[in-house]
Amino acid sequence: MLSQRILDYTDRQIRWLFSAPALLVMLGLFAYPMFRLIWTGFTDEVLSSEGKIEFIGVANYVRAFSEDPHFLRSIWLTLYFAVGSTLGQLTLGLGLALFLNRQFKGEATFRMLLMFPIIATPVAMSLVWSMLMNPMMGHLNYYLSLLGLPGSLWAADTSTVLPSLIMIELWHWVPMTMLVLLAGLKSLPKEPFEAATVDGASRFQMFVNITLPLLQPYVFLLLLLRLVHGLKVFDKIFVISGGGPNRASETLNIMIYEQAFGATNFGYASALGSFLLLIILLISIGLFRFRQRKWSY
Amino acid sequence: MMADQTIQKINRLLFYAILIFIVTVFFFPFMWVAFTAFQDAVNAGAVPPDLLAPPTLDNFRQVFEEGGFISCMINSTIVVALTLTANLIVSLPAAYVIARNRQNWMMFLILFMQMAPWITLLLPWYIIFKKLGLYDTYIGLVLSNLTFMIPFTIWLMLGFFEDVPVEVEEAAWLDGCSHLGTFVRIVVPLVKGGIITITTLGFMFCWNIFLFPLVLSGYGTKTLPVFVYGFMDDNQLDFGPLAAASLLTMLPVIIFVLINQKYFRQGIAFGGGK
User: Fold this and answer.
1) CB within 8 Å: A113 and B26
2) A37 contacts in chain B (CB < 8 Å)
3) Which one, out of A151, A259, B59, B224, has a CA that is 20 to 30 A from the CA of A285?
């Protein structure tokens, strides 16, 4: 009888019991660290220092906005990379999805091959790309020369490094946006298109007046998700350019890493991190509101 | 009539030409790495490469002799296996409870936890992990991976759990099953598809992750992506060994995901990628 009572008790407490492990892990590894990050942003903590950590108010933020010229530049670089790659992923992904929205022979093989960029280890592929982009021995310049075009310095030049990185980001993620948008296209209702065909609408008219509006929730959701992702990209930039040359690709993520683990300015790096977190939080709220309005799941 | 057929033929030809172009663009780096990994030092960095040069295994020998490659691969495997197991044990019950009592603030938290930049977690973790002795341990790496796996798993599993009719649980419950028994024996088998999806995507995320082990692992627990990064510094322009190391690093994850392709595609379509 006792065991029955214990069972009854646990049944009542089941909600807490079931969610306790996940809750504990996320409290310890997410909530507390976030709190610690924001707090550290107001101190002068230095990595591996045994000295006293002092509370210095908003000094780190003052330093970022008025004394560190690279901070504003890194915000610009981060936005350049994130917005550029997001727009590229959506236009190319949508274009490819529209092009492939039909049945054809070899569809399965095609999809399988297109999945490779998403699956492959980013660090390994970044290494491959940096070899392909090598100005002297790389294949990309060789193909350009075959087409009679001049070679590029790719990631080795301040003016081409970010476009090169965006190109790799597109190579990595366009297959994904394409697959999502293709799934979206295939789930659209058939009736509006049939009605429009009967009315003699052109393909372009159908695209602008039917496909795009119906697809809008998918596009907008992807837009926000890819934007947030773009703001967080680290691996590619770190491996291929390391933020260089001459800090021309040092986005916020790389800058925070360098400040924390290179220059050991933990307090300053935490302030920069808090700033990045705030931006992501604002976008997340926007995303969530949108999802509640237009997304049923 | 004739003209229509010709136009159709040209259309189809054009379609496949564009298709092959697209595949080449996206698949070309893989062909390059698979080719270069088997080339000797002279041909690996040559442009144009000699496509008929006899293949060699020297590059792979060099990767294995570099030291650490095999132990890093073992480390990666251990961390991935532990993370995926722990993730299911921790996340599934939570996802089940949340699916039955969904509330807006929970959903927002789960979304935000997936959105937060990893670098902002890493800074405090570094200090905390050092203090707790979790630095350079498997547990530390597993915990760091769980932080993105748990919200993602809950997010994805909600839909699966919501599709399980409550009547099924009530029936089991009336038969004298406890909640835990009902969950383990009745509900979990019904969401098998979700579990395979999570395991497939989780394998990919955890095998590929670089930033966390870059900072949180030392000599004892270094994972493959960190190894490749170091290998790159040691062999600056030696394209052959670098290609071999890249190929060996990504081969396991590609094979694993391709085996579970169907589930992978479902997960990608659902989550919109990470």
Assistant:
1) yes
2) 120-121, 123-124
3) A259
User: 10 Å Cβ neighbour count for B191?
Assistant: 22
The answer to whether residues B69 and B225 touch, using CB atoms and an 8 Å cutoff, is no
How far off is chain B from A96, nearest CA to CA, in Å? 9
CA of A17 vs chain B CAs: smallest distance (Å): 9
Question: What is the chain A residue with the closest CA to B100?
Answer: A15
Residue given tokens 């590619």 in the structure block: A236
Asked if residue A85 lies in contact with residue A162, where contact means CB atoms within 8 angstroms, the answer is no
Q: Where are the domains of chain B?
A: 2-58, 63-271
Q: Do B115 and A125 touch (CB under 8 A)?
A: no
| Percent of chain B residues past pLDDT 70, beyond the cut | 97
Does the beta-carbon distance from A121 to B215 stay under 8 Å? no
* Assigned fold of B63-271: MetI-like fold (1.10.3720)
Residue A11 has pLDDT above 80, yes or no: no
Handedness of CA B198, B200, B202, B205 (dihedral sign): negative
CA-nearest of B215, B216, B214, B217 to B232 is B214
Dist CA B48 CA B55 (whole Å):
16
- pLDDT tens digits along B41-65: 878 877 777 788 888 898 899 888 8
- A11 to chain B: nearest residue by CA? B179
B253 to A119: CB separation less than 8 angstroms, yes or no: yes
pTM of the model: 0.91
Q: Residue B199: what pLDDT?
A: 95
Instruction: Return the residue in A19, A167, A251 with the most chain B beta carbons within 10 A, the one to mutate for interface testing.
Output: A19
* Mutation target vs A (from B35, B47, B119; most A CBs, 10 A cutoff): B119
Buried b (16+ CB within 10 A) or exposed e, B19-33: beebeeebeebbebb
Environment class of A198 (CB within 10 Å of its CB; exposed 0-12, middle 13-18, buried 19+): exposed
In whole angstroms, how far apart are CA B226 and each of A250, B189, B219, B233, B251?
20, 37, 11, 11, 16
Host H or E run for residue B114: helix B104-115
> Taking all residues of chain B, what is their mean pLDDT, rounded to a whole number?
88
Query: CA-CA distance, A149 to A285, in Å (whole number)?
Result: 46
User: Which string of b and e fits A81-108 if b means at least 16 CB within 10 Å?
Assistant: bbebbbbbbbebbbebbbebeeeeeeee
Pairwise CA distance, residues B106 & B175, whole Å: 32
Read off the pLDDT band of B184 (50, 70, 90).
Answer: confident
Which single residue is written with the structure tokens 């999570």?
A: B198
Shortest Cα distance from A199 to chain B (angstroms)?
Answer: 23
A261 contacts A272 by C-beta, under 8 angstroms: no
- Cβ of A15 and B97 within 8 Å? yes
pLDDT tens digits, B186-237: 888 889 999 999 999 999 999 999 999 999 998 889 999 999 999 888 777 7
- Catalogue all structural domains in chain A, each as residue range(s) with its CATH number: 39-103+161-294 (1.10.3720.10)
Cα B136 → chain centroid: 21
Distance from CA of A229 to the nearest CA of B (A): 7
- Helix (H, G, I), strand (E, B), or coil: what is residue B53? coil
